[in-house]
Amino acid sequence: KFGNLEVADGADLVRLQVLEENPGAMLPVKASNGVAVGSEIVALGDGGGAGVVSELKGRIVGLSAESVEVDAGIIQGNSGGPVILAATGQVIGVVTHLTAKREDVWSEGTRFSDIRRFACRLDRSWNWHPLPISTFLAEAKQIADYDRMTKVGFAISSMNPSIHGLRLDTQLAENATALSVLTAAQDVPIVAELIKMNTDLVARRVRSSESDLLKRFRSMLASSISQVNQGANSFNPEKFSPYHKQDGTLSVEWRGKANEALKDRLDSLSQ
To answer: pTM here?
Structure first.
């Protein structure tokens, strides 16, 4: 049984009031003394969203008043999981984010040229703000729905049509291909149309010249730009709670990149 939901000001953290009289065993939070760079840690979480809890071992490689940097192989899905001191079983942080590889000349050959992984420290005082659970869940769904269409845009922009198919095996990210993205969005009309087109081409049920196929695909690309952005004007991260505002802002940036990719693909096929 849970009570009020609160979000932290300036951190990717939420907390729920536990109303159970006997909630069971709790993991203790470690105070700042005794936490040092080099300490062995274990990060727990649902890495990759597979629905299982994994145990990732590593060490603390950096500390600040707000964050703990670790070298355990956490990925998307580990967010919200505890980072635990291996020696004591005490929680020192909650996995929050990763930063992308740096490619400038100053980071070459250093660990800063790799992906970096961070947890938010729990042994400091955060300012907490109440937020209705319904609002929290609604914002999360808005972002997920918006990002799904952004991924559709990237998937469509990666296609290379030929009389043998649309090449849906393009790897878009470590855990996503064009096919996996489109399969998860078959309720979108343009996606359903493209999947059918690909199925017909692979099965040789379509007798079409390369030029006719490109003309048809260009028309689909133009339509996809409109469908990907349908309702986008109502997505306004500035109205989100502090917890979701940054994610929403990043979603808008990625949508812009997806639109650029779609338009570039359309231009390349029009030449």
So the answer is: 0.70
